[in-house]
Design the sequence.
């Protein structure tokens, strides 16, 4: 895992060093398209380049936010087209029924703005939030506005930290990876709990059907 992170970090650093702001846009676009490039490398390294005088802090944050928006459009489009179709057709095999999709649609219709904005500020979640927003076909204008706003704050924070740390910008990595792990564990627990409730509901539903069928059978026998 550490070797993989080292390779990804080297790739990120080389790309940004070669392409400048365009490299920041490209790397953050990939990170936001459900491909987990480490933003805790992309933006702090860019912040370090701010400290050296090569970059401007505000332009770095804007470049990062634009990259996030472009990558999020890709994930949103996949969710709205193929992702929606796949869940409607095969979702029942992973306990996702049309009823659950309808609940998700109502959630994003009512709380989508807050979910997207806050999601862009959370490790792990920020990489994948565009996909469920696309599946629920959240309106594109608010999706774009709140994705851009949340992404700008996230990129500005990481770039500012990298600027302040200077040559020691890499020291932030272990702390963010621990936070990433914590968020991933919490998400896994939430998914497991939701699946448990779903399976338990199905298990209790079948005996109820069986009791109803038995009652109807007894009433039919009495009628005879």
Sequence:
């Amino acid at each position: 895992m550490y070797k993989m992170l080292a390779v990804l970090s080297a790739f990120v650093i080389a790309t940004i060093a070669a392409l400048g702001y365009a490299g920041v846009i490209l790397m953050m676009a990939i990170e936001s398209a459900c491909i987990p490039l480490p933003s805790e490398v992309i933006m702090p390294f860019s912040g370090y380049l701010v400290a050296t005088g090569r970059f401007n802090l505000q332009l770095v944050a804007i470049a990062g936010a634009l990259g996030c928006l472009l990558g999020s459009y890709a994930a949103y489009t996949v969710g709205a087209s193929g992702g929606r179709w796949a869940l409607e057709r095969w979702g029942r095999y992973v306990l996702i029924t049309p009823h659950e999709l309808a609940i998700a649609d109502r959630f994003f219709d009512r709380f989508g703005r807050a979910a997207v904005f806050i999601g862009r500020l959370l490790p792990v979640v920020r990489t994948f939030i565009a996909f469920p927003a696309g599946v629920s076909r959240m309106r594109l204008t608010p999706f774009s506005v709140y994705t851009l706003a949340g992404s700008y704050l996230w990129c500005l924070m990481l770039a500012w930290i990298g600027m302040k740390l200077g040559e020691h910008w890499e020291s932030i990595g272990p702390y963010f990876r621990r936070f990433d792990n914590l968020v991933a564990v919490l998400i896994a627990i939430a998914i497991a709990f939701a699946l448990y409730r779903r399976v338990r509901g199905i298990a209790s539903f079948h005996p109820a059907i069986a009791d109803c069928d038995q009652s109807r059978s007894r009433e039919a026998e009495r009628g005879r």
The mean pLDDT is 79. The CA atoms of residues 141 and 147 lie 10 Å apart. The two ends are 71 Å apart (CA to CA).
